Amino acid sequence: MKLLLASLFALIPLAVHAEYLGNLSANEIDPNSIADPFNAENPDDPNSITNKFELGPYGNPYSPSSATNFEAVNAPRLYDHEGNDRGRLSVKPYDREWVSNPYGRYRSPYSPDSFNNRFSAENLYSPSNPTNSYGRGLPIERR
Among 10, 79, 116, 120, which residue has the fewest nearby CB atoms (within 10 Å)? Predict the structure, then answer.
């Protein structure tokens, strides 16, 4: 019985750790935006995705967790404020999960999950749209 319980707990993940990396937003005044050079996403912070010195795992173009690596396998993800996945943040151009793919699910102007679709819930004037310069954008997390 004890062996059965021990094996059951070994198969169940206890918790999913998410590391908050800031918001993808064009708002330069929001302290959590990656567009604000002085606050949450300081380019000198090693955990910043905008780190220009390539010291951390998210700004380094050679790291598998980087948003600037073309071959990244664990790039940070975007989530809306309800926790729904909005794609991977990377420069990889043609993968369907990446937000840089102009024909993919998360960037196509015809996809209902895209923040470039002006008729979706994430329309151009929504506060959670990353292209709205007055909004809060989408949270970037590493899970």
Answer: 10
State the greatest distance between any 2 C-alpha atoms of the chain, in Å, as a whole number. 59
3-state helix, strand and coil shares in percent for the chain, rounded to the nearest 5? 5, 15, 80
Q: Look at residue 10 and tell me if it is in a domain.
A: no
Whether 128 is in a domain gets the answer: yes
Note the pLDDT tens digit of each residue in 76-109: 888 888 888 888 888 877 888 888 788 888 888 8
Q: Which domain holds residue 113?
A: 17-143
Kindly report the number of other CB atoms within 10 A of residue 53's CB atom: 12
Specify if 42 maps to a domain.
yes
Backbone angles phi, psi at 142, to 5 degrees: -115, 115
Residue 82 token pair: 């309800």
- Provide the pLDDT confidence category of residue 64 given band limits of 50, 70 and 90: confident
What's the rounded Cα separation, in Å, for the pair 59 and 47? 8
What's at 129, amino acid-wise? N
CA dihedral 18, 23, 24, 28 (to 10 degrees): -160
pTM for the full model?
Answer: 0.72
- Partners of 142 in the β-ladder: 19
85-88 vs 19-24, strand pairing mode: unpaired
